[in-house]
Design a protein that fits this description.
CATH class: Alpha Beta
Strand content: 15-25%
Helix content: 25-40%
Number of domains: 1
CATH architecture: 3-Layer(aba) Sandwich
Shape: globular
Distance between the termini: 31 Å
Radius of gyration: 16 Å
Order of helices and strands: HEEHEEHEHEHEH
Strand order of the largest sheet: 1-3-4-2-5-6-7
Amino acid sequence: MEALATAAFLRAAAREGDLPSDGAVEIAFAGRSNVGKSSAINALAGRKALARTSKTPGRTQTINFYGLATGARLVDLPGYGYARVPQAMRERWRALVTAYLQSARGLAGVVLIMDARHPLTPLDEQLIAWLGDVPLLVLLSKADKLSRNAQGATLRSVQQRLRRHRVTLFSSVTRQGVEEGRDLLEQWLEAGPEIKGPR
């Protein structure tokens, strides 16, 4: 947990010109609005308020960077798919995230958080396809809201659909999946980027 535990807010990027260009090793976090992305970042880093959580979908409007003592970074991407955000703002977010993913030379992997009750939405699948060969960890968040049987069925279903990627049940409340996810992220940070970026 050593590297993740050192995370501290570094900067926020609201436009392409704000994105860092130094090629540092990065792990990006993506997911639909209100899916528990900030809570997942906090749980994995072992912090209570590293990433700000909100019950209001669409609150994260910038790409937020968190620096680690090793020089690597965690990157919190704006949530997608929230209909009440104005179309113009959604387009700006989309362009910003696209610019980030295309320019992130040090991208070691992407953590995709999906609500365990509603996994693999069309937007989730679109992002997975677009990322191509970028290493992907899928966290099925809010797993505590499902029964044990429902958890098992959901996990098997998503694993069958995403055979190439690591999928795990996750709950920032019960800590389910936290250690497993943390271990993989530490491996990514140590190994660095295997490829230059998404196709």
